[in-house]
Amino acid sequence: MYAEKVLSGMRPTGRLHLGHYHGVLKNWIKLQHEYPCLFFVADWHALTTNYDEPGGIVENAWEMIIDWLAAGVDPSQATLFIQSRVPEHAELHLLLSMMTPLGWLERVPTYKDQQEKLSHKDLTTYGFLGYPLLQAADILIYRADKVPVGEDQVPHIEFTREIARRFNHIFGREPGFEDKAKQAVKKLGSKRAKLYLELRTRFQEKGEADALEQAHALLDEAQSLSHGDKERLFGYLEGGGKMILVEPGVLLTEAARMPGLDGQKMSKSYNNAITLREDPDSVRKKIRTMQTDPQRVRRTDAGDPEKCPVWQFHVIYSDAAVKEWVQSGCRSAGIGCIECKQPVIDAVLKEQEPMHERAQVYIDDPQLVRNIIADGCEKARKLAQETMRDVREAMGLDYS
Ligand code: TRP
Ligand code: SF4
């Protein structure tokens, strides 16, 4: 079976909060059952904006990885690793930089936006301009098919696709491609070769996407083919030359509806977050003191859930009956705010209980986390090295 690969990365921000859980991690946990997944700590990315305060990257990375594991990311299903421990990312970034037009980088919307937003920093750096290309290298080096990201990252994936296309266009052409491709077809064996050519015709003449998909599956199963031949046949399906790098698609992650304790977006920097492994007493205290509808000053004042961040928590955590109880109780002043918050407190504590348990194992024995990452880095590196072999060869750097 042709299994599409999923890849995603997260900057090492330290302890994660409920916003990360409901926005990103729950999605990762679902995906890990459906695809081979690679999840990594984007530590070099942290330096693109925070090069002047590098302290804390390592510590933040370990804390974040424990949170992934606590949330249920399963290292026996997904490959977990750290970007800088797979130095091939840097090599691909460098090689891709040779063919990346400056204008493409300057046009990435986050370039100007972030420079304006983070105007207290000097972001007129080479690294910051090149950050989307580093991200492209992160993705292309694993030939990832799908990248789960939020809306803000979509232009980066589009940019990655353009880079892959340009690379394949420039470096995927080899002398005598057509002949070599025909030779490779023969190596499939007569039955498979016939099917391959039929699928190719269906795709080229009628544009049938599923013919293309079936042909990809067929090639993935064809174990007798060398790497080079396989790529040639991938490329031959779509016309052009060799398909060395794969254009990834976006798996759009819905924006988290998780508000912070004050109703703004939950964020560490707004000081309105509940962390994934928050102490239970602190969870109680934070929710008990969180803001409610400002119009509801006295217990006897009726309130409006739509104007209350607690309601947003109910939307995420409560079933229909509890929601109805909140709606009518709030609007009629039938319930008090403390009462209203209790089911939320209970639900958050219940959600976090297994996270504390899972995390404890890793806190007690940090070596376990190191081993998971060492393992993941090794697996990731193997995949990365395969791609780099092809990339070096295509760019005329094969010294073997
Ligand atoms: N740029 C992403 C962010 O800031 C993190 C990231 C780096 C990433 N490389 C990636 C995400 C590759 C997906 C795929 O959130
Ligand atoms: Fe908010 Fe609930 Fe109080 Fe209404 S009763 S204002 S929804 S906390």
Search tags:
binds tryptophan; binds iron/sulfur cluster; Rossmann fold; three-stranded parallel β-sheet; 18 helices
Describe the structure.
- This protein is mainly alpha-helical and 400 residues long.
- The protein has three domains: 205 residues, 3-Layer(aba) Sandwich (Rossmann fold), CATH 3.40.50.620; 61 residues, no CATH class; 87 residues, Tyrosyl-Transfer RNA Synthetase, CATH 1.10.240.
- The chain is built from 18 helices and five strands.
- The protein has a three-stranded parallel sheet with strand order 1-2-3. A two-stranded parallel sheet has the order 4-5.
- Helix 4 runs parallel beside helix 18, helix 10 packs across helix 13 and helix 15 crosses helix 17.
- The chain binds tryptophan and iron/sulfur cluster (SF4).
- Iron/sulfur cluster binds next to helix 15, helix 16 and helix 17.
Distance between the termini: 32 Å
| Distinct ligand kinds | tryptophan, iron/sulfur cluster
CATH topology of the largest domain: Rossmann fold
What is the succession of H and E elements?
EHEHHEHHHHHEHHHHHEHHHHH
pLDDT below 50 for ≥5 consecutive residues: which ranges? none
Tally of individual domains: 3
Radius of gyration: 25 Å
Helix content: 55-70%
Describe the sheet with the most strands: 3 strands, parallel
Average pLDDT metric = 94
β-strand number: 5
**Strand order, sheet with most strands:** 1-2-3
Report the CATH superfamily of the largest domain. Answer: HUPs
Please give the CATH class of the largest domain.
Answer: Alpha Beta
Q: Which second-level CATH architecture of the largest domain applies?
A: 3-Layer(aba) Sandwich
Total helical elements = 18
Please tell me what the overall shape is.
elongated
Oligomer: single chain
Category by helix and strand content: mainly alpha
